[in-house]
Amino acid sequence: MFTQNKNVSLLNHSAMNVQIAKCYLHLLPNGAHFAFMHNVLSCAQKDAKIIANDKLAPYLSRFNAAFAQENNHFGQSKKSAHTDKLNALDIARGQAYMAYKTIVKGYAKLPVPEVRMMSKRLLQHIKDYRISVRMQRDSKSGLMSNFIDGLEHDFAAEVAALRLERVVQSMKEENENYIATRVLRTEERMNKQARALFTARQQTDSAYRSFVEMVNAFAIVEGDGGYADFIAYMNTLISQYKKEFLTRSAASSSDDEEHLPDAGDGQGAETETVSGVEP
């Protein structure tokens, strides 16, 4: 099941009631958490003693079901359903703005003094806002909203005289559609993937702890000999994850200053290479 030093037994038989050590699961990054739970379940589902214990079956089943939910959320795409629509709307409002700008520049070249005078006022309005189709989108939304509001009020006479109402309305509609869709995506992100995965992780952790507590309890009641291989594997796995992730995370965390116990202390279990984790 795992590498063993020939000079060290997996279990110190002089110790009584060897237990699976505590693991600080909340400190694991998502990928490491997934790999850890996968390894634990794989080992448990192959262990003859665990499988033979009918009283452990519901705990293992709950653990497996919780992990399946974590797996489901972990694998889902984080791309919002609104992203493609936002991209299209941003292009559309940019095109409407550029069309307006081109038309006004065209009017400014006409040999009609009154038309040139009105178009120059509109050109100055364009220069004052300095809107670029490549600028940051939220900034663009705010600038375009204020820019269009000015066209509808301060420059309403010029817009009407040059018959620019339709292109101004097009700009307004595309910009408002973008802003409304942006709000929908923000609300979606508030409630969707990160929260779903976080909740799934918590459920997996709860099921894992219940399962481990029952294994530890049976090791006390029935004697740990029958569970020796599984307990030794678990403590080796936890020790490895502690060295690779938990010690480092705990050192950088101001919220959790508790000592992280070495899962291999007193167990005689030697560190192994586990799936998904390099030593």
Radius of gyration: 32 Å
Low-pLDDT residue intervals, each spanning 5 or more residues: 1-15, 250-279
Shape: rod-shaped
Major pleated sheet: none
What's the helix count?
Answer: 10
Give the integer mean of the pLDDT values.
Answer: 83
Strand content: under 5%
Helicity range of the residues?
A: 55-70%
Describe the structure.
α4 packs antiparallel against α8. The protein is rod-shaped and about 100 Å long. With 279 residues, the chain is mostly helical. The longest helix has 30 residues, at 193-222. It contains ten helices and no strands.
Provide key terms for this protein.
67% helix; disordered N terminus; 279 residues; single chain; rod-shaped; mainly alpha; disordered C terminus; 10 helices
List the helices and strands and how they pair.
Blueprint lengths: L29 H15 L3 H5 L4 H19 L7 H26 L4 H17 L7 H17 L2 H6 L3 H27 L1 H30 L5 H25 L27
Helix pairs in contact: 1-3, 1-10, 3-9, 4-5, 4-8, 6-8
